[in-house]
Amino acid sequence: MRSRLIPYVLLFLALLTIASILVTRTLLVNVEREVNRTSHMIALLISELLVPSLERPQVAQTIQTVLKDVDFPIVVTDEIGIPRAWHRIGVPPSKFTSEQLNRPDQLKDDPDFLKILKTIGRLKRLHEPIPIKTGETVVGYLYYGLPPLVPFLQILPFALLVVGALAFLGLIWAARSVQDYTMKDFWASFAKGLAHQMGVPVSSLWGWVELLRHSNADPEVLQRMEQDLQRLSSILRRFSKIGGTEKLKPMNLAQVVQDTVTDLQGRFLQGIAVHLDLQAQPQVFGDPELFSWALENLLKNAYEARSQRNPRIVLTLTQDEEEAVLRISDNGRGIPKDKIKHLFKRSFSTKERGWGVGLLLVRRIIEEIHKGKIRLVRSEPSVETVFEIRIPFTQGGMVP
After folding, report:
1. What is the C-alpha separation between 42 and 44, in angstroms, rounded?
2. Are strands 312-319 and 273-277 parallel, antiparallel or unpaired?
3. Residue 391, CB half-sphere, CA atoms under 13 Å: how many?
């Protein structure tokens, strides 16, 4: 569903960017026009009202008074380029006296004076300076820039694009968080509810078995009934654990793998070669019953997808510096390529019947309960399909 929404989201972001560019472009044109108009009016005012010489102190003070309400950078120079008045350029208007400015050679190393000169160069690149005239004689120049707001308007379309993209990513994150929370809540409610609802009839069946035992029932029938009830009780314990916050304890992973395979060989792994390579003996934090259940699901899938010729399952247990690594491989029919991306993410099954929740159970047991990782390493039909489980070590590393 998210993949179907992406084109619409991209279209929305593109339209948002275009609209913001058009709006900000209009604003920038209006700002530019107003700045030009104001600057020309100031130059005209200075030309009409002031005496020809800008060097006089009274003239500089008058110009500063004219400039004080301007909201953009502006510098007034005399006809040879010596600054006489300025505003909004980061240098106080009263920094230099007219006498000091009359001797620019003595200010050539002053950082503020150099800053004024550098600002004049920058403003000249932005706008052609406006001549200040008395009659036909040029007595100075007015340099001007743009208000501080303009750079923000220029980057506004890109800022909106970034904000929109971040908002989209935030929505995806929120949706995934809600989905994960919903799945966890589902597992907890479903598993606990199932264990509770089934616990009562199972207890009742154990009572009936005890009555049959004292009524001279066939011992073989009783034995089979007890085995089935023990199996059912084990399943209910597993659901009860997977729906709660089970406390993990150190366990010998090799022993759990060995016991699980031995149990399954007596149930459904007959007629298939199962090879165990358990030379490593890592100890990890875990729950033996739940880990065995996860491994059972993987082995059951391997068994049901087994090859008709020389079916084989291989379990290899190794370790690195931080994790125990268990690989389960088989030579069955494998997993279709178009189905691989759905593994561990939603109900999945290659069988015509069944809920397809086995791998969801495996993922919850390995990643959420045991804080490990599970992934499909490769799947090539009739050659090899490999799943890999990684579980972090306990402190102490190996079992002696």
Report:
1. 5
2. parallel
3. 33
> Are 144 and 73 in contact, with CB atoms under 8 Å apart?
yes
What whole-number distance in Å separates Cα of residue 391 and Cα of residue 382?
A: 28
The fraction of the chain above a pLDDT of 90, given in percent, is 21
**238 burial level (CB within 10 Å; 0-12, 13-18, 19+):** buried
The residues with which 373 forms a beta bridge, in sequence order, are 390
Q: How far apart are CA 70 and CA 82, in angstroms?
A: 21
Nearest to 28 by CA among 112, 150, 158, 206: 150
Q: In this structure, are residues 5 and 116 in contact, taking their beta carbons and an 8 Å threshold?
A: no
Q: Let me know: does 349 contact 298? Beta carbons within 8 Å.
A: no
pLDDT tens per residue across span 219-240: 776 677 777 667 666 666 666 6
Q: Which pair of tokens denotes residue 153?
A: 């308007």
- What number of other Cβ atoms are within 10 A of residue 44's Cβ? 14
Only one residue has tokens 């020309």, namely 40
pLDDT at 400 over 60: no
69-73, 347-351, 368-372: least confidently modelled range: 347-351
State the DSSP string of 93-133: TTSS-HHHHT-GGGGTT-HHHHHHHHHHHHHHHHSPPEEEE
Domain architecture of the chain: domains with CATH: 2-147 (3.30.450), 176-238 (no CATH), 246-398 (3.30.565.10)
Could you please report the per-residue DSSP string of 160-187? HHHHHHHHHHHHHHHHHHHHHHHHHHHH
Which residues are CB-neighbours of 327 under 8 A, at least 6 positions away? 314, 315, 316, 318, 377, 386, 387, 388, 389
pTM above 0.85, yes or no: no
